Amino acid sequence: MLRQASRGLRLVRSHAEAWGVIPDQIAVLGFSAGGHLAGSISVLHHKFRFEQQDDLAEVSNRPDATILCYPVISSVRSYGRAASLCPRRCLNAGRWRQGPHAHRGSFNNLLGQAASEAERAAFSLDQHIDAQTPEAFMFHTTGDTGVPVENSMLYAAGLRKAGTKFEMHVYPGLPHGIGLGDGGNGRQGSPHVGTWHPLAMGWLEAKGWVRAPGAAAQPTPPVL
User: Does 160 reside within a domain?
Assistant: First the structure.
């Protein structure tokens, strides 16, 4: 999936003019485990060789902005940086100790249940944020017990430490998987929580992002 995301960014950027895209205004967005994918390409874009050398190899795979919606971020108990990928504090009799805010299923699906400590820690994104990680917009709810709000808080703390701007909205109550958060499609939500998407659009506009010349016009999101 990461290879596909990486190549997708390169592909869109390489066809920016033909596709009506501004090449330095490409964002990634993800919900829950998809938030981990969006966060992974944002944090790790320059740390792994995602593709073989080909016609897109010289095109940047770095997103210009990241939008994370109740994202899976952390896999480890200890959240500080360390010289190794997995601090000794994360180990217990040679076995992996699941962090208190980690989403076990996401990391098992990503890496397999037999993944090593180093493999899991390598994808605990809060530990690897640096100055090359793009700015981010995040939203989460305090009632999310599947992927606790601390995941977004850890990502925000990493961005702050790296000196990178971010905007984060934490809404009271409501469980995991609320989608747009406005109560549509049979999901739980409220008009208040549904404000996150116009806020995200406003965040992009405040960054100076504009619609590319020739791009199809999109309806303006309602202000709830």
Answer: yes
- 108-150 pLDDT per residue, tens: 556 556 666 777 777 889 999 999 999 999 999 999 998 999 9
E strand residue ranges, 13-90 = 27-31, 65-69
Cβ atoms within 10 Å of 192's Cβ, excluding its own: 13
CB-CB contact of 128 with 110 (8 Å): no
Both tokens of 130, joined, read: 């640096």
pTM: 0.80
CATH number where 140 lies: 3.40.50.1820
Are residues 154 and 79 in contact, defined by beta-carbon separation less than 8 angstroms? yes
Tell me the C-alpha to C-alpha distance, in Å, between residue 79 and each of 69, 75, 83, 114, 127.
20, 9, 13, 22, 7
In a domain, 186, yes or no: yes
Residue numbers of the domain that contains 37 = 2-10+24-206
Strand partners, 66: 28, 136
Q: Which residues pair with 96 in a beta bridge?
A: 91
Q: Would you say residue 120 lies in a domain?
A: yes
Q: Are 111 and 124 in contact (CB under 8 A)?
A: no
